[in-house]
Automatic annotation (TrEMBL):
<dbReference type="GO" id="GO:0005840">
    <property type="term" value="C:ribosome"/>
</dbReference>
<dbReference type="InterPro" id="IPR051908">
    <property type="entry name" value="Ribosomal_N-acetyltransferase"/>
</dbReference>
<keyword id="KW-0689">Ribosomal protein</keyword>
<dbReference type="GO" id="GO:1990189">
    <property type="term" value="F:protein N-terminal-serine acetyltransferase activity"/>
</dbReference>
<dbReference type="InterPro" id="IPR000182">
    <property type="entry name" value="GNAT_dom"/>
</dbReference>
<keyword id="KW-0687">Ribonucleoprotein</keyword>
<dbReference type="Pfam" id="PF13302">
    <property type="entry name" value="Acetyltransf_3"/>
</dbReference>
<protein>
    <submittedName>
        <fullName>Acetyltransferases, including N-acetylases of ribosomal proteins</fullName>
    </submittedName>
</protein>
<keyword id="KW-0808">Transferase</keyword>
<dbReference type="InterPro" id="IPR016181">
    <property type="entry name" value="Acyl_CoA_acyltransferase"/>
</dbReference>
<dbReference type="GO" id="GO:0008999">
    <property type="term" value="F:protein-N-terminal-alanine acetyltransferase activity"/>
</dbReference>
<dbReference type="GO" id="GO:0005737">
    <property type="term" value="C:cytoplasm"/>
</dbReference>
<feature type="domain" description="N-acetyltransferase">
    <location>
        <begin position="10"/>
        <end position="169"/>
    </location>
</feature>
Amino acid sequence: MADDSVTPSFLLRAPRYDDVGAYAVFISDPEVTIWLEDRCQRPVHFHHALAFVLGEAWCRLAIESEGRFVGMAGLEDYDPGNGVARFFIVLGDRSLSNRGLGTAVLRSLVSRGFRDLGLRKIVSNYLAPNIASRIIHARAGFSEEGVQRQVAWRRGEWVDQVLVSILREEWLLER
């Protein structure tokens, strides 16, 4: 478990071209991609990384910590009619694992989503064996909505996907 007293400082900023090479390396690391979507389970080339990092997005941000690019996070799949968006994060610099950075980034994006972007609800999902994702979502106040059974093949077995969300009124109570 992370010790929040040693959480590295971070900056969420607009992605830049010089982030693309590092992101391509991150998503070529099987230990980083193991819990990502199925489309990330096959070889990713520079042009794929370029399209993701710099492509059109509603709220996609670079994570900078300790003076360097360490990953991407954001809110996507925006549904303006319902005021809902989906959180995602890719922390590629494994030297920062278990230090509270994922929780801090998630909390920051939840605040931005509700306070600045006017969202009503933020949803997310993670593969059940991904303990780090379970922890950061719980710490940020997300509640489990359900489980999609056996949706992804990882490490020789079918694994479930956990669906979670937080409502604006829940976030307001926790502030």
